[in-house]
Amino acid sequence: MPGGKRGLVAPQNTFLENIVRRSSESSFLLGNAQIVDWPVVYSNDGFCKLSGYHRADVMQKSSTCSFMYGELTDKKTIEKVRQTFDNYESNCFEILLYKKNRTPVWFYMQIAPIRNEHEKVVLFLCTFKDITLFKQPIEDDSTKGWTKFARLTRALTNSRSVLQQLTPMNKAEVVHKHSRLAEVLQLGSDILPQYKQEAPKTPPHIILHYCAFKTTWDWVILILTFYTAIMVPYNVSFKTKQNNIAWLVLDSVVDVIFLVDIVLNFHTTFVGPGGEVISDPKLIRMNYLKTWFVIDLLSCLPYDIINAFENVDEGISSLFSSLKVVRLLRLGRVARKLDHYLEYGAAVLVLLVCVFGLVAHWLACIWYSIGDYEVIDELTNTIKTDSWLYQLALSIGTPYRYNTTGSGQWEGGPSKDSLYISSLYFTMTSLTTIGFGNIAPTTDGEKIFSVAMMMVGCK
């Protein structure tokens, strides 16, 4: 399926979304409970506004807020906070912290461990509330010598959020605020959402793109696409009609599977631009119609069945054989599928070997097509003795001969198996070295192609 990202290969985690939605008017941090010093993995806008720090300044710092400690921060409270994190406990504290501009502020700090479905603590949720107004006015270096009234006035001025809470509210607003704060600060197991994976809800006829069935099906399509990438260039170049019933049945089964894949793609979720799973049937169909539908449709047409009929015109047969090359465009989907495995060294090595072999196979088919086109001059019905096909036929003892009694055409020459093996041998030696000279380009077309192939090999 299309998409610039790798997408979700596992169910979505809606924990953060639930926390943000339920605590929109509070200030909180989320810390990783699995790493030393519990680094911050998320801070909401409320905390950034309350502390004066930007989100980038807070990320990866300790969830204990040690970066906000100062000379007036109580050492015993600091130790209690650390013990709460060490023991994965839930607790609350009144603690004096310093904003980014080093202004001291009293906070009511609550800490709650977040457990996953295996009852293992994976995150810490820390919520903060400014309670400076309700504490003894703070005396620091900047306020020494001030009267108590002056320090209280400064505390009221600096605490805008507290002043906003003191503004008159009607009864309904008071009840709403109380219920929201109770929901956020209670931190009970019935209120706090569980940190776990949740599969998105989809209609009955929609298939999740990461489910076991779709993953298995994608691997089947991947294998058949590689089969197509090998057989299509060979059939087009060597102009083979599938008169063999076994091969005809196999290719027909492949076409049917590709047709079924089109139907499944109309009912398979995909990853949207924001990384979300899109399960709306209308959006799925529109997305598929705009992207891979035309290519997939052309790739599953039964060209081999048409070519199997003896009375099919040669020009029409060649046209249908050429159209089969469209199937190679499905390799773009294969590339995105294999992108998940590029982080493994062994997988990259195997992938490079496969790509090299596939490129060599394609070039071998093109190399034979050039020789087959140039070996016989159709205008004069004479054979070109400088063609690599003619030289190969002489070297292996199967020369071309002119049929004067029958069709009046050139016959003989190497078998198709020998021609393919020789072509693949030449392309392999040209891609890895400069060749050994036993098969060499002689005509202008062969030389131009050989130069292009060596340029590809040097990369």
From TrEMBL:
Transmembrane regions: 219-238, 344-370
Alphabetized SMART domains for the sequence: PAC
Taxonomic placement: Eukaryota, Metazoa, Chordata, Craniata, Vertebrata
Listed GO CC annotations: voltage-gated potassium channel complex
Membrane disposition: Multi-pass membrane protein
InterPro entries on file: Ion_trans_dom, K_chnl_volt-dep_EAG, K_chnl_volt-dep_EAG/ELK/ERG, KCNH_animal-type, PAC, PAS, PAS-assoc_C, PAS-like_dom_sf
Keyword ATP-binding tagged: no
Any Pfam family the entry gives: PAS_9
Entry superkingdom: Eukaryota
GO molecular function annotations of the record: calmodulin binding; voltage-gated potassium channel activity
Gene Ontology process terms (BP): regulation of membrane potential
Subcellular localization(s) per the UniProt record: Membrane
Domain called PAC: residue spans: 91-143
Protein name: PAC domain-containing protein
Classification via Gene3D superfamilies: 1.10.287.70, PAS domain
Principal subcellular localisation of the protein: membrane
Swiss-Prot/TrEMBL keywords: Calmodulin-binding, Membrane, Phosphoprotein, Transmembrane, Transmembrane helix
